[in-house]
Amino acid sequence: MPLAEKALIARIQKLARRDGHQIVRGIGDDCAVLRRQSGEELVITTDLLIEGTHFSHEWHSADSVGHKCLSRGLSDIAAMGADPIAAFLSLGLPASLPQKWVDDFLRGFLRLAKHYNVTLAGGDIAESKSGIVADVMVVGSVPRGKAILRSGARPGDIIYVTGALGGSAATLQQLMRSKHTRSRLGSRHFYPEPRIAVARYLREKRLATSMIDISDGLSTDLAHICEESGARRNKRAGSLGASIVADLVPIANGADLNLALYGGEDYELLFTAGKSARVPVEIAGVAVTEIGWITKEKGMQLIEGTRKPRRLEVKGWEHFKKV
Ligand SMILES: [Mg+2]
Questions:
Q1: Fewer Cβ neighbours under 10 Å: the N or C end of the chain?
Q2: How far is Cα 127 from Cα 119, in angstroms, rounded to an integer?
Q3: Ligand 1 center to residue 183 CA distance, Å?
Q4: What distance in angstroms lies between residue 22's CA and the mean position of ligand 1's atoms?
């Protein structure tokens, strides 16, 4: 059984204690008090992680679930070109759960928080009658007007992705097909690294016209950029489109083009930049690859060799959703 609520909060408070010049008050009052910096805007994201939907005891260690829980929120902060400040964590825990699981979860969560200088500044705990629920909220900051939105892409902009794609889905497929031991599988599925430093660089250099993190698969997340950017440009004209060159898509070890296009949970960044923008091939140690361009005509196309381009369907994470 987990520790009783009061004792558990006291333990988390002790583990989470950190100095942050923007955190006036963290855990231990009715609200957290964050200091606003002048000229900055706040960005806020929430993310829900549910046992049986997003992870399973059989496949995911508590440490990895804790890491993933915060990483998903941080990846959304990165997608805005923002810097994370504070996280808020609400846990629904079954009475049958050993406290060791909670401790391991917190270790994974707080290790990542420390790495990115994020303070766990509050949350809630309740008993869950059906499995573990972890709800994380992350607050970040960005200089006024500098958040990188999904809606800023223009026809002719070049499309880029960070890292390599499909690795997380490939690992999940291996888990479903056989009994691989965890240690032999790729780490991106269990310990995704949010691309905070890449995002900061893109914001500071004003390189990206639009950005999103790839959580549901390249095809699905690129469609969001096309839709939002089209709607912003001209509501009646509708969505923009995109052409993707199959040979350019960076494919993770053990994955294939299908998993790279449609698999989810890679938490890489997908962004667009003007044709004349000088985007480095590597930022903060992460590869940055040009994979296609934005078109005025709506619809997404996949160009494979010299064959006639085919439609790039929007089919993301759903396939692999049944964990
Ligand atoms: Mg996102």
A1: N
A2: 24
A3: 28
A4: 24
